[in-house]
Amino acid sequence: MSVIVINTNMMSVNSQKLLKRSITPLQTAMERLSSGLRINSAKDDAAGLAVATRMTTQIRGLTVGVRNLSDGLSVVQTAEGSIEEVVSSLQRIREIAVQAKSGQYGASDVSYMQFEVNSLVEDIGRIAEQSRFNGIRLFDGSFNINIVAGYLASDAPVSINIDKTQIYDRPNNLTNGVVLTATVSQATIMEGTTWGISDWVTNPLNNVAAERGVLADVITSLSVTRVSGVTTGKYALLRDNPDYDSANPSVAPQQISNASNSIAIIDGSLNSIIRLRSYLGAKANQFESALRSVDNVLETTKAARSRIMDADFAAETANITRALILQQSSISVLSQANSIPQNVLALLK
């Protein structure tokens, strides 16, 4: 039953209630449009915020993983670039050895060729010494790292292990100032070792070889051996003649060609270097594949988080328009409701 009162204006109270209700969605729409986020606090969507937070953890971890993989790819590319120069030097040494093998060159001519061989050998050593990434040497046999590509502690890393790759044998003696020769008398024959010559005799009792030429094992590290400040190695184009007799020098020359042995040794060195280069190429492909995979996961995860967290501006502008209309209507109605008690004055006339 409706009565006419002035102390409690129920129409005004109801209008105030509806006005407050219209203000809340207006505030929410304005907050979302201002921040660009659908969820600005846990009360907006508690479950959605929890899911989005876990996705944020994954996204930030994967973002760092992408940087790690890019650094790993740079390591491999740096090493592969150095190896490319080493291969070029070995190929040039081989060319010189083939040239020295020709019969029209005497020992003095070959010794001049040895100058360039020595320079190339020194350059290989320089490359091996100076090839570093972030101050860490790549070719000393200790480069073994794991690149973290995921965001969980349990995710499997991508490893890079650059083993020692030898392109020299043990220290050799220097003869006549510029001619590099190998005069090691005995050397243990190791299983799996590649030998570049056949001019040695094996003693089956103690498994050692009496060397009559230059050994060609090529299984350890990129390094340079120096004797008296002169770079020496197994790329000698001449070697001491084991049949030389100083009392009868006319029977056999003091030095004979070592070019054939050098070619065989260089071929073994190239095989070792090419094996390392192939490994680095495979690792580069692995890093590029991992980068594509992580980028794909990163993209889809960001899209999923966006659907949860980001505000839909088309929907929010529609909501704010609706809320503004309701607010203006509520204010107009409230104004009318507040004026209704004045009708009581007409009864008092």
What does this structure look like?
This protein has 349 residues and is mainly alpha-helical. The protein has helices at residues 10-35, 46-101, 107-130, 259-309, 313-339, 344-347, and strands spanning 132-133, 136-137, 143-147, 158-162, 174-175, 179-180, 186-188, 200-203, 208-211, 225-227, 230-232, 238-240, 255-257. Strands 7-9-8 form a three-stranded antiparallel sheet, with no helix packed on it. A two-stranded antiparallel sheet has the order 1-2. Strands 3-4 form a two-stranded antiparallel ribbon. Strand 5 and strand 6 (179-180) form a beta hairpin.
Shape: rod-shaped
- Count of helical regions: 6
The structure class reads mainly alpha
Average pLDDT confidence is 74
What are the secondary-structure elements, in order, as H or E?
Answer: HHHEEEEEEEEEEEEEHHH
Counting DSSP E segments of at least 2 residues, the number of strands comes to: 13
Beta-strand level of the residues, as a percent range? 5-15%
Q: How far apart lie the N and C ends?
A: 25 Å
Query: For the report, how would you describe the main beta sheet?
Result: 3 strands, antiparallel
Q: Order of strands across the widest beta sheet?
A: 7-9-8
Percentage of residues in helical conformation: 40-55%
Low-confidence stretches: 168-233
Q: Roughly how many Å is the radius of gyration?
A: 42 Å
